[in-house]
Structure prediction request, 459 residues.
Amino acid sequence: MSLAAQRDPSHSKEIPRFCSSMPAPESADDEGNHGSRRSGCAPSRDREEATMRLRDENASAYSSIFILRELAPEVLARVPDALHRIVTSRDAKVLRRRWHESPGRRSHLSIREAGAVARAHVLTACPSMSDSELFGLHHRLGFDRLPVSLVIAGDRLSIKSWHLELDGEANLAFMHRLVDLACGLPDTPFPRAVRLPVLRGAVRASAPLAVKEALAYRRDHVTPMQSAPEPTDAQRLREAVHLDSAELDERVIAAVRRATDERTTVNSALIAAVAETAAEIHRGQGDPVVSVPVHLGKWAGGPVVGNFILNHRLGGLRSTRWHPCGVRDLLAEAQTRAGFGGFLWDLQWPLKARIRRRSAVAAAQPELTVQISAIRSPRPFPTQAWVSGRPNVVFGSIGPYPAFFTLLWRVGDAVVVAVEDETHAFDSSQYMSVLSRKLGDLIGVRAEPSPSRALPVGA
Prediction:
């Protein structure tokens, strides 16, 4: 089956260049800045900008892909116009930024330039592609002038974003805004970002901890994002990436909540069940690291433009006892201790070369990781977006090395569980069945899997 994407002539006549290494022409942004030129900046702002630039550059090897399935035809038809409206909004400056590797700087598209190329970032692909094929195709297309791109394949919309410009929270805000506009709902501008987030975060997070303790905790528990080249990329894309998803509906989440006590939460119970599931279906003999992203936005006091997360190690997949109470303690500890340790490291921005050397060492000895991300949508999706009225999504995250990734996505009162396996070190076909059993044990009900999309826990 051919994986060549074909352009829908109704979207745009312009043929885009999909080449992540091709610099876009430098142009003035909408606030009078030109490229990366700055004037009159205080030293603290220079340090802050250098810190955030380092964070973003270190995430340049990562991108994420959401595939929204079974969307209504009229919603898909309005997607190109919705993207154009977003990227030409004055509040969407982050979608008009572009990092250029060789000069090591950013440039900005003007609103007019972004509007001229927006619809060219919506492609169409063969409707009969599997989700894995669509995922692989979209990854290979790279990025052009914008840090986002869209591919429509039948009733599916694949949304890819570059982690260098959009972290998880910003990605969710973009996706919600795109779907809302495609459904004909009012626009919701991106919130105004706080100024000097690293400095604010360091001050707010410093109270509970001593510097020595915070740095020691970071050294032992925080995993640097690996910004090395992608040596396994070609091999990965020759093999099918396993993607699957299911929904834990309101009834199941309510049962999980009843099974928790004051020492546990729904999130800690779900993360524990996911880790136990991964341990049971792991085919290898080692002890892969289990990590979760910790968002540091609460320390900054508001929304942040750029990457503001740490990858926090919870423990070894086999050597850790995955109990909801213990997971809650680990997460609470990560928020307090890893926060300050991370900010202290960020403020030492001249150590960029050392970070790159550490990344090169990590590249030589890639580590199998199990990543679990728990996120919450800022608001429910409009029911008219999906034919069934409920979100139907698969998700994958691409980094320098293959990973086993589970997304726990809270949408309203339900949770979408999306799993991606690039490693082929797990019996991923059994994932949902085993997770259903683990959750059934938690809430005191055993259930057999069924072919329906809703995970039949407690049926």
Remarks:
- The chain has a mean pLDDT of 76.
- The longest strand covers residues 309-316.
- The first helix runs from residue 43 to 58.
